[in-house]
Amino acid sequence: MANDKNNEEFNKWMKEFYEAKPKIVGKGDYEYYRWFSSERRKMQYEFSLKILLHLKNIKAEKILEIGCGPGTWTKILLKKYPKANIECVELSSSMSEQFKKNIKNKRIKINVKSFLDFYTNKRYDFVFSSRAIEYIPNKKKIVDKIWKFMEKRGKGVIITSPPHPFLLSIKRAFGKKIDKEHIDRISTDKIKILLQNKGFVNLEFYPILFTDNLPKTIRRFLWNKLYNKKFGLLSKIFASGYLVKFEKPDKR
Length: 252
Prior knowledge:
By secondary structure, this protein is an alpha/beta fold. The chain contains eleven helices and seven strands. A seven-stranded mixed beta sheet has the order 3-2-1-4-5-7-6, with helices on both faces. Helix 5 (72-80) links the parallel strand 1 (62-66) and strand 2. The two termini are 32 Å apart.
């Protein structure tokens, strides 16, 4: 019961946070703020575009996107899959308003609600989520719902952030504030267990971003060297974002 209460409190905070953030922080254009408002963010966008590398062998006609935000990656999916129908789930009405301004396409449907409250009879051959699941405390329920909504032989791609317990411990030691949105991230090891326990197969992990605490030249060096290689020791130490690919088998 305590965990359920904590999840409810976190979900309430998250919804309020993401109602205000696109308006206040992004000033009505969160996509520009997040990806193009500084050289650091432009580099993050450049690195993140390598998502396309990991989609090249994935065919899709019915796509579910979890946490579409202002539509940054939805636009990529539309170009990659010109005949697919895409159903999006987004918690924030502020984000969804910006999404609707950025994307006008009959192949898109957007649902304004938490993914944990989303239900459908549809089944999808590709489930995609970028930087959304770290804001949902109940990771097992996320994996359970993805399994339920995915067709047999369907593919999945999740991009998220690993926890950095060493940095958090330093912040706590010096009495620095730890942002609430940074405390519920999941490691590659833990999400691997959740996915495998559910029955997903052919898991592959890759780094997407590297910590901004490193100099720009080192970040670019690591990215050039590691972005197309499976997650290893260097990625575990320095990656600030990772991608996991997985499949639902024909039979379990």
